[in-house]
Amino acid sequence: MSGKTLIEQLRVSNYELRVTLYSIYTFIISRTKNNLKLNLFQRTLKEKAMRSSNLPFKIFTLLFFALLISPHFVQSMSIDSLFNYFPLKIGNFWFYKDSYSNLGGSGSFYYRVSIIDTVRMNGHFYFKISNSRDTNHAYTRIDSISGNVFNYNLNSCQTFNRNEDLIDSLNAKINNQNNYLCNNESKVLSDTSNILIFNIYAKQENFTRHTSVQIYQNRYVYNIGQSFYSYVLNAGHYSSSEIITLLGCHIGDSTYGVTTEISNLGESSLIADYKLSQNYPNPFNPTTKINFDLKNSAFASLKVFDITGREVRTLVNEKLSAGSYSYDFNASELPSGVYFYQLKTDGFIETKKMILLK
Question: Which of 208, 278, 309, 325 is the most exposed place for a label (fewest CB within 10 A)?
Answer without folding.
Answer: 309
